[in-house]
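hey team, just a heads up i'm posting the complex here instead of the shared drive bc the drive is being weird again. everything in one block, sequence lines first with there labels, then the predicted structure for the whole assembly after. its two chains so it's a bit long, scroll down
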Amino acid sequence: MDELNFRRKLYTEPNSKDPEFLAAVSDSQKNKALYQEIKNFDSKIDSALKVDVPDDLANRLLLRQAIDSHQSQRRKGRIHLALAASVAFAVGISYSLFQTQDHQLPLHQSLTAHAIEHVIHEENFFSNQSVHRVSLNNLNRDMQEFNGQFIDHAGELLAAGFCVFDGVRSLHLVYKGEKDTVAVFIIPDKHQLDFNETEIQGNLKAVAKQFQGRQIVVVGNPKEELDQWQNRIDEKVQWSI
Amino acid sequence: MIKNIFGKKNPNTSVSSDMASKQRKYQALVQALHGDIYRYAYWLVHDQHIAEDLVQETFLRAWRALDSLKDEKAAKSWLITILRRENARRFERKQFDMSEYEESTIIDQKSASTEQEIENDMLRSRIKSLPEEYREPLVLQVLGGFSGEEIAGILDLNKNTVMTRLFRARNQLKEIIDSDADVRGKYSG
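-- predicted structure starts here --
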């Protein structure tokens, strides 16, 4: 292979396995040196091309697909258990499309019972082993609607999303608990439910507290320190109204 | 990752098994290729936000047309073809739909402190300033690992043209980088 062709081949396809090309590489010191130089250069190009990929891009792509298939199914007149909504929720991204998605829960008289029902309804979608974390920025963006801001995380936040609580748009947070997930609901005081402080149903306990124009209900396994969770939320949130 | 979120039980839906397998196929595609496709988009449009939008649109179309992807080995070039089409469409639309939940993510731009980082940033900007017809085949070859024939297929060019452009891309880039090094050498020496 003459010099011209060698150089051409090298610059065009440095990774070529063409035997004639490879023979030319070992043919002379000059060729070998040039080959090394271009290979090194190519690996620098490779590094340069590998720009950072946004962290949650994969999640958003999956979410978009879930929403799309959910929407097309709604068009076909079938209403599933809003798998897409739950996926949206589960990947920790709020999506206002679902603000009108009442999960068709039976009307309950008490706030805490309603909260427990809500958690039962969605218990398949959250795992205490989830590695996903919602950032403080995203959380506070959602919290703006409720006139509050977290100065710091109250725990490890696995998911955050809007949901409907007796017709009222509320915030549903899912934290990692000792043994199992702990749900925190932030509910503006516009609903028709009776306020009560505590309730136990099966293996779930709910503890509610009043904070000016809103209620905060913490739901989890009775063995979790739910009162402490309430206190932590109290400490970590600054309310503007 | 979705499996972890769902836990051990299956969600109580009436998703048909066809749909479930289509979703699995799509998820596998996303997990395996979203990074490559994003990077390709980035080098096409040079803007992180536009690149993200483009990738979203691409994967959405891919989802809808998934049944037409018969050979999974061709998935990457299939996605790139869709992406290029979507990119062309950009100029027909007035603006992209920005969904509410999309937030601006910031590529971690550490201040270039080391010699290597300076070099890397410099190389990136030089690559950006290559003429598009030289840059595209180079990106497809180096980042995408495509062969000359495959690149010719994706770009709808003949193979000789692709080869010439690859040569020119490396040649030009090397010349610029070498002269950059000379200049730096003069100042530091």
